[in-house]
Design goal:
Chain lengths: ~550, ~120
């Protein structure tokens, strides 16, 4: 498991005392709100609807148990005893007081956590495959590279005032669990036939009001040149992007204005004059990062576990849990266990301090002290022995964390929406709750199968509505909350943007509309088709007819 | 009518103006006949940067004997998040809170007074 070194620790200490001083000066009236706002935002502190919100970075979604425990402590001490996990694998605390914020940040820094670069026009927290280091289908641990990017990009003087925010996601597996094509830069690590590690570098993805999937600018970048290539991309962006219209300042706009060929040509030209030796990590440094992740010696175990199989046979609910929340691990006799934060009727992505502490304890007892955040707003215990899965399940169930619905219709992504966020036009959470309640019958949910629903409360798309098999966007229609449905999106390796289905509708009609689409799918699906496959084959028309007849 | 609102600097809490003080309940807030009437209070509020952040006026109406903000966003600010009814000002759960909750007319921005009324 990665631990910050002395430089990181010193930086966090310095930043904490700097922020404490800034806050003191603001409270004393020595600096104005205008002067203070960018400073607090650089430390992840927003002012929202009801209070300040602290957005805490969780680099590549990996937490040591002591860090998760500390998040629980900070949520309990400085907030209302819960937190909200986001699609950028951050944790948001929604009830922070400005006068407490320096203490909260100091407490986080003690375990190597912080809120730096979770806001502002800089390189944000880097996300990665939540199954990194555990899944058999990866060719390297992508977090090694995500950590290299974190070190390079943290308080980078040249890239602290970019035209807009900048998000990077990394995977090293063919199955994309990090939605890499939805970000400013998506990185896919592969191994060539000669055994060389290379990155496919994709640039210009993003959701928001102008959604694009990232386009490939380099198919095989030698992995050890990653930072200098990223540097070249950022330089071209920083130099050539518009800065006169906030809606046109993301790199996706530059890529699509220039065209990917011309953009690539400019990046390659910059890269050609980049002094790699000055930027790229030396192999020794990379090896040092790698060694800090490598702590797991997995016991040699038989691939099958009698205890696991017996529990499955004895308890149908546990069997259901294993069908949806338990995934293959690279080490025989082990499993990756998904912890759903999607109890139907509850807030997607919310966890109480007690729940976080329980997951931290389970991580210590059963998962080598490690937990992960999945961008779908769930948690992961990455290294559980199959023998231990029944015990883990039993503990999770007691705390309301064993909902067997990963990737099912009730595993809904929802942003905080208008309930908390000052940018939102409409609420997202109650819509998610109403849909999840409608489909709370687990047998029916299982019959329907994989069906990712994604809900955003505004066009900024924090709730990934462009990537939902069903996407729902909250809009303000003449002052009322209305919701626009779209279909056919996907954030995986076959990424696609959802297409708008038809006119927006009030929230009360949404569960019926979803139900109508589900019934249509169940009627017309062919063997083995998921909802998304049926939409791709049959098109929008059958669903459009179902919704706009039924919902009338 | 108008009510003057802001967020408390120290804790971020939504506050309302009442005769030179800031109060935390919407129904305790002072109501002004219009922008002109509220202008002196707004000017004082804007001169309190160590007390509140971003003071502004909102439109309010009386419905069945209860005052309520016209804008849905402002009703949420006056209540708290709908997913956690025990959080925020709504935790009191009294008649004033119920009136805010049951207000059904909607308009998000202040300029849309009486646009839709059910």
């Amino acid at each position: 498991m990665y631990r910050y070194d002395e430089f990181d620790r010193q930086m966090l200490e310095d930043r904490t005392s700097e922020f404490r001083l800034q806050t003191t000066r603001r409270l004393a009236g020595e600096i104005t709100e205008e002067q203070f706002k960018p400073l607090r935002l650089m430390n992840g502190l927003y002012l929202q609807m009801h209070a300040y919100m602290l957005r805490i970075a969780i680099p590549y979604g990996t937490l040591r148990s002591e860090q998760l425990r500390r998040l629980a402590h900070v949520a309990r001490t400085y907030d209302k005893g819960y937190g909200h996990f986001t699609t950028r694998t951050n944790l948001q605390l929604h009830w922070i007081k400005l006068r407490d914020a320096p203490d909260a940040i100091e407490s986080l820094a003690e375990v190597g956590l912080h809120a730096i670069q979770t806001s502002g026009n800089c390189i944000r927290n880097v996300t990665a495959d939540p199954y990194a280091g555990a899944t058999a289908d990866e060719i390297d641990d992508p977090r090694v590279w995500a950590e290299a990017i974190r070190q390079w990009s943290t308080v980078h003087p040249e890239f602290s005032y970019l035209p807009r925010k900048f998000k990077i996601a990394v995977t090293a597996a063919e199955k994309d669990r990090a939605a890499i094509r939805a970000y400013d830069i998506g990185l896919h690590l592969r191994r060539t036939r000669d055994g060389e590690l290379t990155f496919e570098v994709m640039v210009g993805g993003g959701q928001g009001r102008t959604p694009y999937l990232a386009k490939t600018v380099r198919e095989h970048l030698p992995a050890h040149r990653l930072l200098s290539y990223l540097n070249a991309i950022l330089r071209v962006y920083n130099r050539e992007s518009r800065r006169d219209n906030i809606h046109k300042q993301r790199i996706k706009i530059l890529v699509n204005t220039l065209g990917v060929e011309e953009f690539t040509r400019r990046v390659e030209a910059e890269y050609a004059v980049t002094d790699g030796a000055d930027i790229d990590l030396p192999d020794t440094e990379l090896a040092a990062i790698r060694s800090r992740f490598h702590v797991h010696a997995f016991d040699a175990r038989p691939a099958k576990s009698a205890a696991f199989e017996a529990a499955k046979a004895a308890d149908p609910e546990f069997a259901r849990f294993t069908r949806h929340n338990v995934h293959p691990h690279k080490a025989p006799g082990h499993a990756i266990v998904d912890v759903s934060l999607k109890v139907p009727g509850e807030t997607p992505g919310d966890a109480t301090s007690e729940q976080m502490e329980l997951v931290a304890d389970l991580a210590d007892r059963y998962s080598k002290g490690e937990a992960r955040i999945h961008y779908t707003q769930n948690l992961v215990l990455p290294h559980v022995k199959l023998d231990d899965v029944p015990a883990v399940y039993a503990e999770l169930a007691k705390a309301g964390l064993a909902t067997a619905n990963i990737d099912l219709i009730t595993d809904i992504i929802a942003c905080p929406g208008l309930d908390y966020c000052t940018l939102a036009n409409a609420r997202a959470i109650p819509v998610a709750q109403s849909i999840a309640r409608r489909f709370a019958d687990m047998d029916r949910a299982e019959l329907i199968g994989e069906l990712p629903i994604r809900i955003s409360g505004c066009i900024n798309a924090c709730g990934h509505h462009h990537l939902g098999a069903i996407g729902i966007l909250g809009v303000d229609k003449k002052g009322e909350e209305y919701y626009q449905l779209s279909l056919g999106g996907s954030g995986d390796e076959k990424a696609a943007l959802a297409q708008i289905l038809g006119p927006a509708m009030p929230p009360g009609q949404i569960p019926d509309a979803i139900d109508a689409m589900v019934e249509t799918y169940l009627t017309i699906r062919e063997d083995g088709e998921r909802f998304l496959d049926t939409v791709r084959r049959a098109g929008l028309q059958p669903f459009k007819e179902a919704v706009y007849v039924e919902a009338r | 009518m108008k009510v003057l609102t802001a967020n408390n600097l120290k804790n971020g809490e939504v506050v309302f103006w009442k005769g030179g003080q800031w109060v935390i309940r919407f129904h305790d807030g002072e109501r002004f006949a219009g922008d002109e009437d509220a202008a002196p209070a707004l000017a004082v509020a804007e001169g309190q940067p160590t007390v509140v952040v971003a003071p502004y006026l909102i439109d309010v109406e009386e419905i069945d004997g209860h005052w309520t903000p016209i804008a849905f966003r402002e009703r949420l600010r006056a209540l708290g998040p709908t997913n956690h009814p025990q959080h925020g000002k709504q935790a009191d759960g009294d008649a004033d809170v119920e009136a805010l909750r049951s207000a059904t007319f909607v308009a998000r921005s202040a300029g849309r007074v009486k646009l839709i009324k059910r």
